[in-house]
Amino acid sequence: MNNMKRTKAIVLSIIISLLVFPIALGFETRGNLLMEYARNFVFCTMYGGPFLLIAGVPVHLLAGFIVEKSKRFKLTVSFLIHILPAAIIGFALFGEAGFLIGIPVISASVFFAADALIYRRVSHPVKIAGVVLVPALIYVLMCIPQLIQKAEFQAIQNEPEPKAELTVNEETSPIRLSTCWDSDDSSGCPIDREPYLLPTDDVGVREFQVDGEAFAELNFLNTDRSFTLEVYYLTDQGVEQINTDQNGFTLPDGIKEQVIKGTATMDNSQKVSFTFGIRNGNR
Description:
The chain crosses the membrane at residues 50-68, 75-93, 99-119, 126-148. Keywords: Membrane, Transmembrane, Transmembrane helix. Helix content is 48%, strand content 23%. It is of the alpha+beta class. It has two domains: 2-157, no CATH class; 164-279, Sandwich (Immunoglobulin-like). The strands form two sheets. Strands 3, 4, 5, 7, 8, 10 and 11 form a seven-stranded mixed β-sheet that branches. It has a four-stranded antiparallel β-sheet with strand order 2-1-6-9, with no helix packed on it. A hairpin with a 2-residue loop joins β7 and β8 (238-244). α2 (33-69) packs across α4. The longest helix has 37 residues, at 33-69. The termini are far apart.
């Protein structure tokens, strides 16, 4: 009889976990949610199903064995043995994807609840309420960081396109910018690190006439965000790089007329690229 109840608790836990996983994984589009849920369900069943059998069921059986040996606080012991290994596994597998860490914990809480209600037959109303609410509470706690990140990202997306002006040796001019988003230096947001010699013809960039060193200062007009600068220019030895957390930088005397490439990385991971030309008569 006990084996039958244990098997029923395990099977029900696996089914509920697989049904909940697609929701915990989230929906990326606002289209057909049912179709997206179905796709997520297939994905979670293929990859999460074996994981539940390999890790979830053995931990559940271990928890049952230890709880049987415990004389007090059986529910607390069962909860800890289910949840702690799941949290460790979540951090080990998804440490860089924070919102996924909670998925093994949700599954563990489902195993815990099924074990308490089906196998152990918890009957006290307060305990039943606590056992039932544990998976829901863990899911809500897992969603909080996601909701905060989404709210922050939406606020960032609603910010206006940055506008800036560049001052070179006290000559100030608006400058054309290009922007993209990148939080991990992915190839989807590349930085142009290739300055080139400036021809005599107009190449469509703002040019500044300088004599000697060129002190340049980039000022954003519609944002107070902090940023770091990468600037690339040519010398006789090749491409040189300037890195600074200030908004100003100095180009040395004697460089050839060229197009300078620069990128400002904002504190919200937005990359803002700009180019400008230097005219000094050195060709």
